[in-house]
Amino acid sequence: MKMRNKQRKSSAFCCNAGSRCSLPVVVWSLVGCILMIHLYSVIRQNDDENIQARLKHLAITRELEEVEEESFHMPPPRGRRSPRAVKRRGPRKPPSVIDEFLDDSSELRNFFFPDRRTVIDPSREGNDSMHYYPGRQWLDTDGNPIQAHGGGLLYVESTATYYWYGENKDGETYHAHKRGAARVIVSAVSVNQVDIIGVSCYSSKDLWTWTNKGIVLPGEETNITHDLHKSNVLERPKVVYNDRTGQYVMWMHIDDVNYTKASVGVAVSNSPTGPFEYLYSQRPHGCESRDMTIFKDEDGKAYLIYSSEDNSELHVGPLTDDYLDVTGVVRRILVGQHREAPALFKYEGTYYMITSGCTGWAPNRALAHAAESIMGPWETMGNPCVGGNRIFRTTTFFSQSTFVVPIMGLPGSFIFMADRWNPAELRDSRYVWLPLSVGGAADEPLEYNFGFPLWSRVSIYWHRRWRLPVGWKGVQT
Ligand code: DGJ
After folding, report:
1. Does a structural domain hold residue 29?
2. Is residue 386 left, alpha or beta, with left meaning phi > 0 and alpha meaning psi from -120 to 50?
3. What is the pLDDT of residues 226-263, one digit of tens each?
4. Is 217 inside a domain boundary?
5. Per the record, which residues fall in region Disordered (predicted)?
């Protein structure tokens, strides 16, 4: 019995030439072959599509990562010293490029702040449509220069609309008196100020054509004790949406004109276009808070990140579930590094941040930082700026970080948003928007990692003129 079974079993599976094959085996083998061929062709097709998509993505990334070189001639030093002054103080030092940048009578003025003839104008059709020109005046759909400095974007998925919030600085620039406590590293021009006008909001579907939605949080004209009284300081407003409460929550830097109040303010609205109701200001965790930003993570938790302790370090802490307050949890990060203007983003589970140094309205070198947890530890990776020239790279292309926007549908590609401050005429400060990408090895390996790069490099590419990929829809895919 055992024997018979064995034989039957072996004849059913042995199908060599000349031997007898059972029909079901042949049929099932054929079906198997057909299925395998079908599977193979499906995989091939998917692979082809993937390869095509990857190639397209690569071409787009390459286009965004192309850089342009910049060169300019320094004007000869102005005004000679008298022989007596030369004897006492030596010959006049040639001005630095930054001196020229800050000098509103410099011959280089138009290079850094091109005049009205070169504006970016969404109403103008043609070759320049959809192109960014960092540093040029940028008009809204009414034909007025966009007033959204130190700003940030919010994307509202339900309407596929971007909102750009920022400081409206459309007032006269004056030299604020320095009373009492000193501000950290205050250069001669860093105390220039404008009255608080309020927070502006613009909307766009394509990140290029911006419609003015008005001032969504106005300054206060009469009540001198109010945080938003026009004589105070309101900077770097950022808005996030709270899915639980259905409210749009704005956080901003609130200060007095001497920057001694060093607080954050909170406002809410039921609509992205306001009006926002101002709630209160506080020193978060009982600490000084100057340049700041907020970041909403994928799990819906939001965080406040701010420069503290005379700007010598940053603090990061989660907000309460309604986003209206901080919790008791806080961590000190980048301690002793003197960074401000934080702009955070996340890619493939890693947190990244761009910061500036602390030199008032004058530009300085940006740094990129990375962390596995938003609460730290944060590591500094080096200067992310690529292209232009050495001076461009060591001044963040003559601008200061404010926000980083993910380019929907292009994983790893972002827009770096920065302000080119014009201290002599703050309302005429310009926007520097450039492609930022994450990829490749960081160029400054960290001390403890034995020379092995731990993080991906963050790069911001200089372009005199650039655009988002043709056909980019501006909506989440
Ligand atoms: C640098 C900050 O980043 C700006 O927001 C502003 O506070 C200026 N300093 C004022 O000097």
Report:
1. no
2. beta
3. 999 999 999 999 999 999 999 999 999 999 999 999 99
4. yes
5. 66-96
